[in-house]
Structures are given as structure tokens and as C-alpha cells.
């Protein structure tokens, strides 16, 4: 059995927080460029060019690409043959987040009391951490900086099984119509289908980690992703809600078996600043 001191995650998490906020993933940059080539709206093309320029400036000058540097969400894949020693993994992750947000001059957006909305915790902790046991003796951390504007437009429905795929498409499209420009499109839509109330929401968030635009391996689910993407882009909301063909860049669906009487569906909305970095230790 391999041993790993949890202190070794602190610096990689700090670096991941800084990198995620300053460097838009290459796959997102490529998707924005492709959208620019296909966009028919002159205003939409201007927005897409501006987003690409902003991403390049953030990378070149090593500054945050957005003033909302997000809440930190970490999906931790822990090998079942790995023995974590030297402390608490959650505390180590929070130390990394604190260091990264301080050193990177990133905005601290977390408040201790969700109702009073104060005080600010001062270092953007605690992170939201989801742990899953996997085979092996490794540790993989997917570090995501999730902005509040897009997160606020997310939703969850407990549909009836009779609603089927059509009901899923209708629910998602209607929610995006309601959101319009508030989540800063073009968007990436993570959708969780099945499981239970809380499982669907977790699947939706996790779906955002899939390489951008990579279709689901199940052909039927991949067809549903394509149908949702077409329907969302047909709304004409467009980049930043100013009109155009590009309201979403990708739709990623994850599914899970569920009760015969239920059809849980969750939508997690991600703006064009799709910020996540994967660490392997």
C-alpha cells in the first residue's frame, strides 16, 4: 500500500487555483474560435472576438480572466490502496486554496453565513470537496473555479418518467430562455439524469469536467446531447445574451440508474470561463 502525506497536495492545489483563473483551457479557446467562424450575428462575432482577446490577455499578463474567480469545487479520486497520512485531506485542500487565492490576488468570494452573507472567510475557503474511491493507489484532484453568475442559473427538476427525453430538452431550453444573458454565454451545460435528487445534481457538476464537446460514449445519450445543443442555440440568445447562433458551445450529459417512479434531471450551467485543472499525485 502506498502512503502519501496530505501536505503534498497543498502546493499543487494552490497552483491549480491560480492557473485555472488565468489560463482558459486550449479546448475552450478552440471552441470559441470555431464559434466565431460559424456565428452569423455581427454583434455575436464581436463578442466572441472580445472573449478570445480577453483570454489571451489573461494568459499573457497572468491576470484573472474574470473578476469572479469562483468558488472552488474539487472532485477527488482516491485510490483504495492509497493511505493518506500526515493530516486531513480536506484541510490540506483548503490550505492550498487559501495560498493560491492569496498569492494569485484572486477575489475571495466565500461568506461564512449563507443567510447573513457575512463575514467573508477571507481566503475563499472552504472548498466544496467530493471524494470517490477508485481502484489503485493514486490521487487525482479535479480543481474547478465555479463562478456565481452561471451557478445561479442552474436548476433541478423531478420529472415524471413519462416526460422522457423530450421533457428533458424542454426543461433545459426553458431554463436557458429564462436565464438569457445572465450566465454569460456561450455556455457549457452539464446535465445529470437519474439517480436521486442529490445524485442528479452531482452528476451535472461532474459532467462539466469532460473534455469540451466530447460526446457521451452511449449513442442514445450522445444524440440527446446534440438535440439539447441544437435547441438551446435555436433560442437566438447568443453570446452574452446579445443575440446570435452561439448560446452554448457544448452539452455534457451523465446518467445513472433511478427509481421507476422518478426522473431526476439537474442542469449545472457553466459560462465561457470554464476553469478547471486536473492534478495527479
Short description:
This protein is α/β, with parallel strands linked by helices. It folds into two domains: 2-19 and 65-146, no CATH class; 149-274, no CATH class. The protein is built from eight helices and twelve strands.
Task: Provide an overview of this structure.
The protein is α/β, with parallel strands linked by helices and 281 residues long. The protein has 2 domains: 100 residues, no CATH class; 126 residues, no CATH class. The protein is built from 8 helices and 12 strands.
Please report which band the strand proportion falls in: under 5%, 5-15%, 15-25%, 25-35%, 35-45% or over 45%: 25-35%
Give Rg in angstroms: 19 Å
Overall pLDDT, averaged?
97
Going by helix content, strand content and strand pairing, the class is: alpha/beta
Strand order of the largest sheet: 6-2-7-12
Mind summarizing the main beta sheet? 4 strands, mixed
The number of distinct helices, counting runs of at least 4 residues, comes to 8
Instruction: Please bin the fraction of helical residues.
Output: 25-40%
What separation lies between the terminal Cα atoms?
15 Å
The number of distinct structural domains comes to: 2
Encode the helix/strand succession as letters: EHHHEEHEEEEHEHEHHEEE
Q: How many distinct beta strands?
A: 12
Runs with pLDDT <50, length 5+?
none
Overall body shape: globular
Amino acid at each position: 500500500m502506498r502512503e502519501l502525506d496530505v501536505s503534498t497536495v497543498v502546493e499543487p492545489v494552490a497552483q491549480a487555483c491560480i492557473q485555472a483563473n488565468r489560463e482558459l483551457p486550449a479546448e475552450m479557446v478552440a471552441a470559441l474560435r470555431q464559434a466565431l467562424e460559424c456565428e452569423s450575428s455581427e454583434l455575436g462575432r464581436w463578442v466572441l472576438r472580445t472573449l478570445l482577446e480577453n483570454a489571451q490577455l489573461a494568459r499573457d499578463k497572468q491576470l484573472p480572466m474574470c473578476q469572479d474567480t469562483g468558488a472552488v469545487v474539487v472532485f477527488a479520486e482516491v485510490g483504495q490502496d492509497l493511505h493518506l497520512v500526515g493530516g486531513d485531506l480536506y484541510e490540506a485542500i483548503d490550505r492550498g486554496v487559501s495560498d493560491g487565492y492569496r498569492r494569485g490576488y484572486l477575489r475571495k468570494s466565500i461568506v461564512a453565513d449563507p443567510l447573513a452573507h457575512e463575514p467573508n472567510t477571507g481566503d475563499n475557503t472552504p472548498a466544496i470537496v467530493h471524494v470517490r474511491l477508485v481502484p489503485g493507489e493514486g490521487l487525482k484532484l479535479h480543481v474547478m473555479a465555479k463562478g456565481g453568475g452561471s451557478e445561479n442559473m442552474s436548476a433541478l427538476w423531478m420529472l415524471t418518467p413519462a416526460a422522457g427525453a423530450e421533457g428533458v430538452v424542454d426543461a433545459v431550453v426553458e431554463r436557458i430562455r429564462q436565464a438569457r444573458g445572465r450566465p454569460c454565454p456561450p455556455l457549457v451545460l452539464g446535465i445529470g439524469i437519474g439517480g436521486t435528487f442529490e445524485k442528479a445534481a452531482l452528476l451535472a457538476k461532474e459532467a462539466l469536467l469532460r473534455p469540451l464537446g466530447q460526446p457521451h460514449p452511449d449513442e442514445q445519450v450522445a444524440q440527446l446531447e446534440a438535440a439539447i445543443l441544437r435547441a438551446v442555440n435555436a433560442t437566438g440568445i447568443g453570446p452574452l445574451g446579445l443575440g446570435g447562433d452561439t448560446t452554448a458551445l457544448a452539452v455534457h450529459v451523465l446518467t445513472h440508474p433511478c427509481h421507476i417512479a422518478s426522473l431526476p434531471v439537474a442542469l449545472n450551467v457553466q459560462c465561457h470561463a470554464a476553469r478547471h485543472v486536473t492534478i495527479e499525485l
